[in-house]
Design goal:
Structural class: alpha/beta
Number of strands: 7
Distance between the termini: 36 Å
Shape: globular
């Protein structure tokens, strides 16, 4: 298994991930968490690393607040789309684009960052834990780590609900891999264990799409979207709903040395 690049899929990725009901929920839930993290720094101008950040959806929002962002991605197509959007928004001076894999960051980036983002990346990696260990070397003491990952437990539950038992028996591995379906989802328990090993306390955790994907009438995902978003935000951090999220978002801190 090798790490995944989205070359040739940038436009489709942007449309599927952020321009849909599920994408809007993802944006709202994750951004609320990020705002909570930003508030810990007061009015400081932060140095932020968005690792594997694609076309920089959150990188652009953070730069628009006045922060300095380094955005790296393995896909040249994604970074080209990012460059266009960044120029249109007048953010060129705020965002540095780096074309490389996370594992190759030492060749391109120096110093440490106040905030490190790694969103929807680990589920595409051959060795996610080791990659994150390397990435966290760039997080300064007292800094925050924002990790969004595809939840294997929720994938299993949704497969059970729809009766996809052959898929479950196959270990949640599809015979024909779809290009935008993650290949290496992680369980929250494993990720929490990693963070505990690294002595990084979790400040908040949110399930992304704790309701959306389980709705009986799929048309309600659009017809009742405003109510759905309200309920997603209400229940995404509450047990037992939080771990039903198709994705999990975790904010963790690096202890001061």
């Amino acid at each position: 298994m090798s790490d995944h690049s989205f070359d040739g899929l940038s436009e489709k990725f942007a449309q599927n991930i952020y321009a849909t009901s599920k994408g809007k929920i993802r944006t709202a839930v994750v951004w609320r968490d990020l705002e909570q993290g930003l508030a810990r720094f007061g009015n400081q101008r932060l140095r932020i690393l968005d690792a594997g950040g694609g076309f920089g959806f959150f990188a652009q929002k953070l730069a628009a607040l006045g922060h300095d962002v380094t955005l790296c991605d393995l896909s040249a197509d994604m970074l080209e789309l990012a460059k266009e959007q960044i120029a249109e928004k007048g953010l060129t001076e705020r965002i540095r684009l780096v074309h490389c894999a996370i594992q190759d960051l030492p060749e391109h980036v120096d110093g440490t960052f106040d905030f490190v983002l790694c969103h929807a990346v680990v589920e595409w990696l051959a060795d996610p834990k080791q990659t994150l260990i390397g990435l966290l070397q760039y997080l300064k003491s007292g800094g925050l780590f924002s990790l969004l990952f595809y939840n294997r437990d929720a994938l299993l539950f949704q497969s059970l609900v729809v009766g996809n038992f052959d898929y479950i028996r196959a270990g949640l591995v599809k015979k024909r891999q779809q290009k935008l379906t993650p290949t290496n989802p992680q369980t929250p328990a494993d990720v929490y264990q990693w963070l505990a090993e690294w002595q990084m306390p979790v400040l908040c955790r949110s399930g992304v799409r704790v309701i959306h994907d389980y709705m009986r009438h799929k048309e309600d995902q659009h017809k009742k979207f405003s109510d759905l978003l309200e309920m997603e935000l209400r229940y995404c951090q509450q047990e037992p709903f939080v771990h039903l999220g198709r994705y999990m978002h975790v904010l963790a801190s690096k202890p001061c040395q």
